[in-house]
Amino acid sequence: MTMSLGIRGRLFLFAALMIVAVVGTAGLFVERSVVASVRARLELELFRHAKSTGVLLEHAPGEAVDEIADRAAAATRSEVSIFALDGTPIGSSTMAPLELEQLVGPSTDPELREAMERERGVAIRDDADGTPRMFVAVRVASPSGALITRASARIPTAAEAVAELRVALAFAGVAGLAIAGGLLVAVGSQVERALRPVVSSVAAAKLVDSVDGDSQHDEEGPTSLRSVAVDLEQAMGTLSSERNRFEAVLQTLEQAVLVLGPDDRVVTVNRAANTMLSLPEQTVGRTLLEAVRVPRLKALAAAAADGGTHHDEFDLPSGLRINVRATRHSDEGVVIVATDITEMRHLERVRRDFVANVSHELRTPISVIRANAETLLDGALEDPKAARMFVDATHRHADRLGSIVSDLLDISRIEAGRYVLNPAELNVGEVVDQVLDLVELKAAEKGIELVVSIDHALEIHADRKAMEHILINLVSNAFKYEPENGTIEVTAHAPSPDTVRIEILDNGPGIDPAHRERIFERFFRVDAGRSRDMGGTGLGLSIVKNLVEAQGGEVGVDPRSPKGSVFWFTLPAGRSAGGMQREETSSS
């Protein structure tokens, strides 16, 4: 029995080492990815802070540069500095103006030199207390000429970035050890019961031998035979159980795992690998290139077979993008671990597209404002008629710029969960009438008739401010495309006792089916030039989608016959939504 416990202990130790190795390998890879992502996100945020400081410089020409640096730092919660083009500091959120004047000569920081040459510079260095910081410098335009704005912030340590991840991995490791211990105890009991007949046979043989008088042989032979039999049976049972347990752990991993032998043939493969790599049914025993016809994966395995750990990232024929790590193991084979990063890369592309779209949308009003200001300064101020025209254009594009920034802030607050919602019981007809009253004058100017068809008793459970924001955006969108002397309808009904559906119908040109799925994306426009001419920011429908989904509803657009569109959204029904519906039609 002592030997049995010893074998169990060794097997448990082996299982623990395997669990630690698997969890540690996966944790190390994910930890590095998280830290890299945190740094990339911090660099993007600091770049935005530096650019926003440049916008403040352009729109506050009479304000002191140091005060602008202080305002930008307070708004972005980072340290902001402003330099002349030669690197001389002229404003800082961390230094008083007198301290800046005492500085001798231009700064030689690497990010500033890079910004002078390439319009953008990034550097990482330690503070006086040894804390690593990231500095992002951007060359911007200002009324007094080109300047360099710089934003900096402390870089979160790896422990801060992956604290929750480490806790989760530790919990998984402890759970695995507990499962391993329970399995070993259970399997040991089953093996002991299975070997009882063998032990009884050995004991009987010992009794027969003792009758022959060879006592020394009797004491040692049967006992040794029994020990060998018990140890052998227990070892076989424990190894079988351990293999099953290892297979269970391996098969539940989200990462694809392939183990190759010294002859480059597949020894072990898990379910994730079968799915991710589209492996054939019989993979074990085949060479890697026979199982997966991806030359880059073969090249990575060949490099790992020569020693060391090798990484690569590439696309599979199925369209998935994977990050692969190949390591040589002690049996001269190679362990390949592949992680599906398709969604992560998609999110990165979405982020890049969003930044590009924001830059594109902001560039037009900024360029117009700058051009008008330059024209006025060049002499147009002396011509009252021309001056008024340029000032009107400047004011119009400044309003557009403000609208874009305001909408971006709204979307950011909604997605970050900082948009406070106070849902209450609201009468749908009352809210719709209040919103339409706001646009009644605009409708009269264009000769548009507003028709409402809503049951007086219909109620929803929603936030009033958000509901008004949704309706104003959708009705304003209908105004843009409704022809003169047309009709815009607002209807509502309860398709189920728990849901209310509100629709805004117009008679515009409609939306092509290929564009309907993307119509609620940020900055997406079916006709970009016409939308800008009408004053749209390209964010209204995106705000609608976020506000509706934040309240547990859905939003969409359907075609209207013979032409036009039906924009609709659903919200949770109030207490009276299931009552009798008496439709009333009114127009204004």
Key attributes of the depicted protein:
Helix Hairpins; single chain; alpha+beta; Beta-Lactamase; 5-stranded antiparallel beta sheet; 588 residues
Would you mind describing this structure in some detail?
The chain is of the alpha+beta class and 588 residues long. It has four domains: 23-156, PAS domain (Beta-Lactamase), CATH 3.30.450; 253-340, Beta-Lactamase; 345-415, Orthogonal Bundle (Helix Hairpins); 424-587, Heat Shock Protein 90, CATH 3.30.565. It has 17 helices and 18 strands. Strands 16-17-15-14-12-18 form a six-stranded mixed β-sheet. A five-stranded antiparallel β-sheet has the order 2-1-5-4-3. α1 runs antiparallel to α6 and α14 packs antiparallel against α17 (540-550). The longest helix is centred in the first third of the chain and has 58 residues, at 2-59. The chain is globular. The protein starts with a helix and ends with a strand.
Short structural summary:
With 588 residues, the chain is an alpha+beta fold. The protein has 17 helices and 18 strands. The strands form four sheets. A six-stranded mixed β-sheet has the order 16-17-15-14-12-18. Strands 2-1-5-4-3 form a five-stranded antiparallel β-sheet. A five-stranded antiparallel β-sheet has the order 7-6-10-9-8, sandwiched between helices.
